[in-house]
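pasting for ref. prot 1 ->
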Amino acid sequence: MAEGEQIAVRILSRVRDVPAEQWDACAGDAPFLSHAFLDALEESQSAVAEEGWLPHHLAVEKDGRLVAAAPLYVKGHSYGEYVFDWSWANAYQRAGQAYYPKLQCCVPFTPVGGNRLLIHPEAEHDKYAGALVGAMVELTERMDLSGAHLTFLNRKQWELCGEVGLLQRVGVQYHWRNEGYESYDDFLEALIARKRKNLRKERKQAAASGVELVTLTGEEITREHWSAFYRFYTNTIDRKWGSAYLTKDFFHILGDTMPERVVLVMGRHEGRWIAGALNLRSEKAIYGRYWGCSERYKSLHFEVCYHRAIDFAIEHGLERVEAGAQGQHKIQRGYVPVETYSAHYLSRPDFRAAIEAFLEREREGMREDIADLTTQSPYREDRAQARCAE
């Protein structure tokens, strides 16, 4: 630090402990990292200590103003993370050691990549990013936790974590990229004929269902829409034998505090709302998050979640659609496999060595899998080669 520089690192028990404008100046355009989104999770009782998410957000201040921050939680479980470490927890248990609690730097319930070390654009990125990682390691040791985990990092911050000794992990997601298409039909022309025909058939099947679809943003979204969507959300959770991470209040708070970020695709049949998909948007991308329905119709899920997101991206000139975790079936709908990144600090040297060896093998296998998935691309050979070259 420069001579005379006054730097302080604070632990925040809630994101409201810093002004929204200062947090957002560090978070940038990412909707899930915004003060409003993280606050909605806390105020709705979705990501709080009682649910196994104890906020310990880091705030680095210089001369009284926020210059860096990180969304950070002490976790009592591994639910809602989408980077699975259950086998690590089981290994600790077999050895008679406690894996929980642990530190988790992430956006709860949100597998969207990006910055996790939030640095003000006028501050020196690597210096303050390193300070945040160092603070996480120190906090892990001071609280006698098993480790600290930073999930869904962008590549730059993932590499920085590797340089300071954290273990590195690679995963896969499926994103759609806008190549300057002027319409959905323009996008279809980039595909091989058979795939083009399949998608046209799929969209016709959804249209033939008689379900009226509308894409709503901002003030177009009412409390009626949110109440209906929450019903779809819980229906989907119940069918999958899961538990609802998000409370009903979360969706209403989201609609009240950041409506301009929300893109809600809703389906109505015979005057009743029967399906919906929740997306958030930034200036460059639309992010698919949740889907649900009370009645099933052929191809409706694909239409609401994937095709309508592409429609929106083309209409608004967005660079990409990120359709959430998992889902190899997305490839046939124009979404391509991309790497995701996480970094991990483990306090016990013996476990660290074993997991480091595992991650080395896993990275190699994951990249082989991505290469194989890429061969399933529906794009014409000339378009596929151009994508690989990038």
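and prot 2 ->
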Amino acid sequence: MPVRLNELSSALKLNSSTTLRFLTTLQNRGYVYQDPSTSKYSLTYKICRLANKLSANMELQSVTHPYLIALTEIFQESACVSVEQNMEMVYVDVMSGPGKTLMGMQKVGNTSPMHSTGNGKLLLLNYTEEQIDRLIAKRGLRRFTANTLTDKESLMRRLEEVRRNGFATDEEENEIGLRCVAYPIYDYTDKIVAGLSITGPISRITPQLMQEKGHYLQEAAQEISRRLGYQET
């Protein structure tokens, strides 16, 4: 129902100038419309897109969480699921390992870069080269450590490796001393819609560990994909 500025500010218990600032931002982004004849504000249907994304992410979390619990027990490390939104990765499900703490960024709702994370590299496999150029123009390839990929050529080479290997890693690219290993989650459209990963110190997430237990992470991603309607060909 359309409302006036003073009605909305009263309901929100905010002063009019603050409410107007929020409304102007939402209006500029296409989420709010102001009728010029009445000066009343109303939501646009674009808000439905956000609602649908939130609903989808909540449904995804209900599927993934039991697998995260199992993976943290198997690896004794943190596990997470993240999806892409607006050229960033958003954490939708996280679980810390027994007696361990999550990385600062790994909390539901937090974002992380695509180029320097395991899950992010997986979602970049959906991108065309033109879309990667747009990502670089919009987000940049920020350096976090000496290992971060900060140029297009290096990123493209790494993505080819990820495509061949079927999984992605973060080799101390966000934080020195930490390694992430990630497998893709597909849905019924046959596209990668999320990444499933474990994160921990490189002293524990070793090649030997992944050789012995990596199949558990891969199988979990495959089972989640099947539950989302993906059919391997």
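The two ends are 49 Å apart (CA to CA).
The first strand starts at residue 32 and ends at 34.
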